[in-house]
Specification:
Length: 685
């Protein structure tokens, strides 16, 4: 427990005892002799001194919270105020100061609520009770003031800058619920509708309500984005009928969950907006590989059918059971995300798709297809910039440089799935795009050693000058060898993530040590104690303030005590994020020792992530970090966390973000954490 909390608890208990002593209803004890009289005198004197100390402590907390708030440190100021209210819940001072801090932040409603709380707890006979009433009235008046910026600012500024941001990011429009912004005044409505940028969301509505689409119908001509995220079921027909009921002259972005719809219904809906629609997402929910197309009534929903119906599409994301060969070229489509439920795509299917979509820039396949198409990629799609084969998540940054020719981002494979790639397909693609590619991520195993051997013998003349990020999870030595060759030829490499065989190769760690722009290092499933890995950390420690290393993530497949380099982490001067992932802790003391080096070192650390999987966090793990001067975010994934550690989270001085996963935490502690820590997230699964 933090010192302020301990003091608050002490004074609260003391005040309770004092109240009991001074309560007229408490039976008095007649003094029997002089010794009793002396004790009564000591009690009275001590009580008076405690009251004086309480007043002094309250005054100092008030003084400190004022200084903190004036300096903009509102969170810490409010913590002091919370202690004041805990010490003396009937004192006006804690509520007055809290309300004042809220008002400094412009949080008038919160201030009014705090003054109201004070009026409940402070005696009406207190002469400062009136002061609380007046401050509450001022806060409510301030909260009710409105500045009509929409009407007063220049029309061009409102339409081009303010309204698109408000409507797109702050408010999702429902098809059956009025949007308050549209009903403030006629001027507001006119200006908002000038954007033609409304985004509506239809989810779970039923045809039994005649007014279910009233808002959408009223403003249909100004809708730009429509999400229909409720498929047809036995309970209702679904909201797809809205396409028949409304005309959408400005609709460009459409998302439809097409579970249960007949092809004719879906195609009719798309037909109605095909002239304006440029971005389309068609997906199913709850499907499995055991399902078949007849279960969904949409057996003929396929790539060719959608593109033939909507030739103006620029972006398409399609989940489908079937793939039919394309017969017509579609030159406007630049982004395609494709998920086939049952089987990966064959070489012929891939060539057919690429040859009929020559303008593709972004191609995302959720399953890994036959990769022989890689050698023909730029023959059919010369403008391809991003290619992903495997996995549902996309690149960290789906951005590319339009002025750079060639592939810029490549991802092959799925995490924890042992996909197999042929070097004859992969290596030529890498060499062809060595002057353009900036991000490579490959997971699986490589076959075809001859090409890799030839690649290694090319010398240093062929370099990947734009490569910034390399992620390799190698299931065999051949892929790890390819990773080593790429590192040797990538002078500007900044971010490296290695797993399995690649994470246990000393030659790779030795190569990484020579990088001059090294900023992020992530390893996964390290099972060997590596002297070369220690040398990397030692080198970064020796660089001191000149080190560029900002993030370190280490995944260990063995007990912490077997890795001799753990003590080096604390010496990293500029690292802002450290993540330790382990599922094997045979010696908790070794883990705590590592934590102690981080707590006493890493002077720039802002974020710490500790992953224990399905095992408990060693007791003391969190407590060790409480005095770290810069730590702001703590993420813990464990089967359990000692209560003492959880309580100690309340005493962290800089902490403003906590994420706890799986570990059971008592409700009252979660409430305390959420009251004290601005961003507290608890995921109990």
């Amino acid at each position: 427990m933090s010192p302020p909390c301990m003091i608050a608890s002490f004074f609260t208990q003391s005040l309770f005892i004092i109240a009991q002593i001074n309560d007229p209803s408490t039976p008095s004890i007649e003094p029997i002799n002089s010794h009793h009289q002396q004790r009564q005198a000591v009690i009275a004197t001590a009580t008076e001194e405690i009251n004086q100390l309480t007043c002094q402590f309250m005054a100092k907390l008030n003084e400190r919270s004022t200084a903190m708030a004036n300096g903009g440190n509102f969170d810490r100021a409010l913590r002091d105020v919370a202690v004041m209210q805990a010490i003396d819940p009937t004192s006006f001072l804690g509520y007055l100061k809290a309300g004042d801090i809220y008002q400094q932040q412009g949080r008038q409603q919160d201030a009014a609520a705090m003054y109201e709380k004070g009026l409940v707890h402070v005696s009406s006979s207190d002469y400062r009770y009136t002061n609380l009433q007046m401050r509450q009235k001022d806060a409510l008046d301030a909260a009710n003031k409105r500045v009509d910026f929409i009407s007063q600012l220049p029309l061009e500024l409102v339409v081009s800058e303010i309204l698109p941001w408000v409507i797109n990011y702050l408010y999702r429009l429902a098809v059956d619920t009025p949007c308050p912004y549209l009903y403030v005044s006629r001027t507001w409505r006119q200006r908002i509708l000038l954007c033609n940028n409304l985004s509506f969301h239809a989810d779970g509505v039923t045809n039994s309500d005649v007014f279910q689409f009233r808002e959408l119908e009223r403003f249909a001509e100004h809708v730009k984005t429509l999400l229909v995220e409720a498929g047809r079921s036995n309970l209702h027909e679904g909201p797809l009928s809205v396409f028949d009921d409304c005309d959408f002259p400005n609709l460009t972005h459409v998302t439809i969950c097409y579970n249960g719809y007949e092809e004719d219904d879906l195609m009719s809906a798309l037909e109605s907006v095909r002239r304006t629609m440029t971005h389309l997402v068609l997906y199913m929910e709850g499907h499995t590989e055991e399902d078949n197309d007849d279960d969904y009534g949409t057996s003929r929903i396929h790539l060719g059918g959608v593109l033939d119906l909507c030739p103006g599409l620029v972006s398409l994301e399609l989940m489908s059971f079937t793939i039919h060969h394309l017969t017509v070229q579609h030159t406007t489509l630049t982004q395609l995300t494709l998920s086939t439920v049952i089987f990966p795509l064959s070489y012929d299917a891939m060539i057919n798709i690429l040859s009929h979509l020559p303008s593709l820039v972004y191609f995302d396949l959720h399953h890994v297809p036959d990769l022989r198409f890689l050698t023909r990629l730029h023959v059919y799609c010369p403008g391809m910039k991003l290619l992903k084969c495997g996995g549902c998540d996309s690149f960290d940054e789906d951005i590319y440089d339009r002025h750079v020719q060639g592939l810029q981002k490549l991802r092959l494979g799925i995490d924890d799935v042992d996909e197999q790639f042929n070097a004859d397909d992969l290596v030529p693609l890498l060499l062809e795009n060595r002057q353009s590619i900036d991000h490579i991520r490959v997971t699986g195993r490589l076959i075809g050693e001859s090409v890799v051997r030839d690649y290694k013998s090319l010398g240093s003349s062929l370099t990947f000058d734009r490569l910034k990020k390399l992620e390799v999870h190698a299931a065999n030595d051949q892929l790890a060898t390819l990773a080593l060759s790429i590192i040797h030829r990538s002078p500007n490499l900044c971010h490296v993530r290695l797993g399995s065989h690649a994470a246990n190769r000393d030659t790779i760690w030795n190569a990484l040590r020579g990088l001059s722009n090294f900023q992020t290092l992530s390893t996964r499933k390290m099972t060997m104690d590596s002297i070369s890995f220690r040398n990397i950390l030692e080198h970064q420690v020796e660089l001191g303030k000149d080190s560029l290393l900002k993030e370190l993530q280490v995944g260990m497949g063995a007990d912490v005590s077997t890795f001799s380099w753990m003590d080096m982490i604390g010496g990293l001067q500029n690292v802002t994020k450290v993540a330790l992932l382990t599922t094997t802790i045979e010696t908790p003391s070794a883990y705590l020792s590592t934590n102690a080096t981080i707590a006493e070192g890493c002077p720039s650390l802002l974020r710490l992530e500790l992953y224990f999987g399905r095992q408990p966090a060693p007791e003391g793990t969190i407590t060790l970090m409480k005095d770290h001067p810069t730590l702001q975010c703590l993420r813990i994934h464990a089967s359990s966390i000692a209560e003492r550690d959880v309580v100690n989270l309340l005493s962290f001085t800089k902490l403003n973000n906590v994420i706890i996963i799986i570990a059971p935490i008592q409700d009252y502690l979660i409430a305390l954490l959420r009251a004290r820590i601005p961003h507290m997230k608890y995921i109990p699964y």
